[in-house]
Write a structure and sequence with these properties.
With 169 residues, this protein is of the alpha/beta class. It contains eight helices and five strands; from the N terminus they run H-E-H-E-H-H-E-H-H-E-H-E-H. The radius of gyration is 16 Å and the shape is globular.
């Protein structure tokens, strides 16, 4: 299997002896048009673009991201709009889509993964789907050449960390 776009971006940065720059924006904040303008303006400098899909209770996020999500939702941004933004934005930059599992579940897990692949999403972070509960979803992602990014916290035990890393892409 060939290296993912995400892995290639990190390899390029390593070769250039510099850290990778990953940017994060919430899709649709504060409008679809403005969101796309922001992504286009930062894409020249970013190695990987992380795009959040807005959620009405983003409890795992800080205040700035919560506010950004609320603005996007208030302006009517739906999952279909997030996919349109990704599709219109897609450059040669890897894109990681980040959000909450219940949004994926509501959209339909299989349909969501197919749509991600169709619009060019390279990776997914699902903040409220921890290991080992994420194993089946991660397998579906891998089958569709989408990197499932596992999250670790500073308090994750070394034992648990080894298990999580073993299941990572």
């Amino acid at each position: 299997m060939s290296s993912s776009q995400i892995s290639l971006a990190f390899k390029k940065c390593r070769k250039e002896k510099r850290p990778a720059l990953l940017t994060y924006t919430v899709a649709g904040d504060n409008t679809k048009k403005k969101s796309l303008e922001i992504l286009n303006s930062i894409s020249n400098y970013a190695d990987i673009c992380e795009i959040g899909f807005p959620h009405n209770t983003p409890i795992a996020d800080g205040g700035q991201i919560q506010s950004s999500s609320y603005r996007a939702i208030k302006n009517g941004i739906k999952m279909k709009d997030v996919f349109q933004i990704v599709k219109k934005f897609k450059k040669n930059k890897p894109i990681i889509l980040m959000g909450y599992y219940n949004m994926i579940c509501q959209y339909n897990e299989n349909k969501f993964i197919r749509k991600c692949k169709q619009v060019g999403v390279n990776g997914l972070i699902v903040v409220d789907l921890p290991w080992p509960d994420n194993k089946n979803f991660a397998k579906k992602c891998k089958k569709n050449s989408i990197t499932f990014v596992q999250l670790l916290s500073p308090t994750t035990s070394k034992e648990r960390m080894k298990k999580i890393i073993k299941d990572s892409h």
